[in-house]
TrEMBL record:
Gene3D superfamilies (UniProt xref): PEBP-like
PANTHER family in alphabetical order: PEBP (PHOSPHATIDYLETHANOLAMINE-BINDING PROTEIN) FAMILY PROTEIN (PTHR30289:SF1), UNCHARACTERIZED PROTEIN YBCL-RELATED (PTHR30289)
Pfam family of the protein (one): PBP
Protein name as it appears in the record: PBP family phospholipid-binding protein
Signal sequence segment: none
Highest taxon in the source lineage: Bacteria
InterPro entries per UniProt: PEBP, PEBP-like_sf, YbhB_YbcL/LppC-like
Organism: Hydrogenothermus marinus
SUPFAM superfamilies in the record: PEBP-like (SSF49777)
């Protein structure tokens, strides 16, 4: 399983457009080689280099397994087409909020896609990353990561 973006390559810098210094929209993502027995997907975007510890930028779950990616600029709404749900990030907002690190060394942004053996994680829209992690514990079939960098 893989997660890719046409906005940046794995290990490369995320363009400013997708950050708080730009228009802060989500980059287009592509999901490939999803395992056949996948019932749903979930996506977490986080910055492990934040001064306060791991900082969550995006939480998405109950993604049908036939979804092959997301277009650029996903709506910042709790409930999307096809029953896709978005949670609350550490900016205390629904949907994607991009990199916004303090000045200094580059931060790493992990786009983590997980394939699950359950169709619905049992959470309403607006869940936190920790609630999602607890709900999917024991249900992960596969995992893929895309890492982007950003510095201010």
């Amino acid at each position: 399983m893989k997660i890719l973006s046409n906005a940046f390559e794995n290990g490369e810098f995320i363009p400013e457009k997708y950050t708080c210094d730009g228009i802060d929209i989500s980059p287009a993502l592509k999901f490939i080689d999803i395992p056949e027995n996948t019932k749903s997907l979930a996506l977490i975007v986080e910055d492990p280099d934040a001064p306060i510890g791991v900082f969550t930028h995006w939480v998405v779950y109950d993604i049908p397994p036939n979804i092959t990616g997301f277009p650029e600029g996903m709506p910042k709404e709790p409930l999307l087409e096809y029953g896709i749900k978005q949670g609350i990030n550490d900016f205390d907002k629904i949907g994607y909020n991009g990199p916004c690190p303090p000045p200094g060394k580059p931060h790493r942004y992990f786009f983590i896609l997980v394939a699950l053996n359950i169709q619905n994680v049992g959470l309403a829209p607006g869940a936190t990353k920790n609630e999602l992690i607890k709900a999917i514990n024991g249900h992960i079939i596969d995992k893929a990561e895309l890492i982007g960098l950003y510095r201010r």
